[in-house]
Amino acid sequence: MTWLVTGGAGYIGAHVVRAFQDEGIGVVALDDLSSGHREFVPAAVPFVEGTILDTGLFRRTLDAHQVVGVVHLAGFKYAGVSVQRPLHTYEQNVTGTVSVLQAMQDAGVDKMVFSSSAATFGTPTTDLVTEASPTRPESPYGESKLIGEWLLRDQATATGLRHTSLRYFNVVGSGSTEVYDSSPHNLFPLVIEALLEGRTPRINGDDYDTPDGTCVRDYIHVADLAVSHVSAARALSAGTPLEPVYNLGSGEGLSVRQIMEAMARGTGVDFTPEIHARRPGDPDRIVASGDLAARDIDWRMRHTIDEMVTSAWEARRAHLDPTAQES
Fold first, then answer.
1. Which CATH architecture best describes the domain 187-217+250-286+302-326?
2. pLDDT for 225-279, tens place per residue?
3. Cα torsion at 300, 115, 46, 234 (round to 10°)?
4. Whole-number mean pLDDT of the chain?
5. Which position among 11, 78, 90, 141 bears the catalytic label?
6. What would the pLDDT profile of 302-327 be if each residue is shown by its tens digit?
7. 253: how many CB neighbours lie within 10 A of its CB?
């Protein structure tokens, strides 16, 4: 039994690949390396460099490795940038998903775990988001992920595809020093890069309607996320009924100021963050319940915020240029 992970050389994808390895399940990674890193994929894992838009390549990969299911993580994930690049976002996330589903249909592969996003919710109207909360995406990225969920639903009706979609918020930390988050947009790498370069991290807005005035969000450890992707794949392989959508949420959330305090503790770098103006469109609080996922796909918060910070810091430092570290 072999599963294919699209985006398998990315930060999240590489952790999912390792989680399959840990469970003794065969896995192959496909990635176009537009944001992933070849060295993130373990040497023992077959790697195919290519785009999900190449339906023929995808079909040949499925056949060559006798793939039984796909974990679909590949896509363009930057919500803010998607507003400036809507056509690119839809091509990668919608046309790309159509390509993957077409290749799967042609190859007779009938199982998919889809990496969706909490961006499908837009700005919540309740303190705690559940799977029943209304979806009102506010960016091309969020819209494209919701369309991806619809594509799976419709393909299931047409062909019997077995599937589930996992929605989540801020993925942080590292399960291996060989993999780190290299995104230029995510909070953890932004803070870590600032500290490594001797700059002061910044908070965008401290006048929100929250206990300490800064935005509250879900922060979940990437290794915990990876475990639930594999658990979902196992359930689909076993024919276990799953919900069409699961939220991988903390149920509580953390504020940006709490993240900054944890960063100071975990890195050993004492700093006082600079306060800047709010960013347009940032809601006060977005936190999801993970109860359904805990019931069905082994979801739980196994790491504290300090462990999230420490693992992220150690993984990033492991990839520093040794000559730069000496200077």
1. Alpha-Beta Complex (3.90)
2. 999 999 999 999 999 999 999 999 999 999 999 999 999 999 999 999 999 998 8
3. 50
4. 95
5. 141
6. 999 999 999 999 999 999 965 443 33
7. 21
Residue 218: is its pLDDT beyond 50? yes
pLDDT given for residue 323 in this prediction: 45
CATH class label, 2-169+221-248 = alpha beta
The pairing of strands 170-172 and 219-221 is parallel
- 141 classed as catalytic: yes
